[in-house]
Amino acid sequence: MRGFLTTKAARRTLRPIADLIDQRIERRIRRSIRDPDGELQRELAALRRRQEPLELLFNATGRGVSRLPADVHLKRGIDELALMTGDSDDAERNIAQAFRLLIALEALGVGRIAGGTMNICGKLAAVPLLDPPNDEILEIGTLYGMFGAALIRMMERAGRDPSLTIVDPLAGLQLQPGTTERGDPTGTPVRGPAVRTNLALAGTAGTAARIQQGFSEDPEVRALLSDRSYGVIIIDGDHSAPGVLADLAWAEQIIAPGGIVVLDDFGHPKWPGIKEAYDKHMATDTRLTYLGQVANSGYLRASTESRAASV
Ligand SMILES: C[S@@+](CC[C@H](N)C(=O)[O-])C[C@H]1O[C@@H](n2cnc3c(N)ncnc32)[C@H](O)[C@@H]1O
What we know:
This protein is of the alpha/beta class. 51% of the residues lie in helices and 14% in strands. The protein is built from 13 helices and seven strands.
């Protein structure tokens, strides 16, 4: 009998009966979880109603992207940071603190921080952990200045005294060669006063930040901002290959020995010019060494030899 039941012919004959049994079982299960008095349904609806306003804290409305990273992205971000810095406890702590800061600043500030949640948290967490050689930070491309404000906070949390310099055209909207200029999802124009308001959220260091309106490739802007060696340079302005190449060449001259260069949107499929410029730059006689990547940012460190010694 057992032998017969396992034959192909028996299986074909018995299939309609097996299907019928399956359907009955399914119906029983549905009936048993059906909620005769509608109590479960009401509870579910009440939970949904309660959750919707909470989701406003994290969802994409009014900023273009959701701030709730998938579990797998969160874990990957922590792992990438731990791999680069060699400390998984610090990586997890800094990412958690950066995440809370991002939510708080976007709730309270004007505009938003650009980019995906893990990329932002990665940058905020990584820079202090990479222990830059001095507290001078240059951000090329700031949009609303909110990332700069957040980075000041993260550096202060690490016991540092950050001094921020920003360069951005502050042109009313985000300028990006090769892309269509659209209004920002926040509805807020990109203007100096918005940047100042956001920086003020970061206290004294934020208020003291230097804001240079203009383009990073402009010789006058360069002359004004090349007055010091920066411990950290964030390259997040013109995302085209020639633009990034020009910023890398400038960074090469003004980064302090041992300083950190962050290349935003590194390897991002939407911005192939960044990796293209990186590859070109790294083929030159550079002081920069690749440290690693966290989400969509690449991290480089300048050699500890001073520029004069290495030339
Ligand atoms: C992606 S946003 C910067 C986002 C910001 N770093 C953040 O994390 O929120 C790019 C900014 O760079 C500006 N920008 C474009 N070309 C630039 C250039 N040549 N020099 C400086 N800023 C530039 C854009 O107008 C925009 O405000």
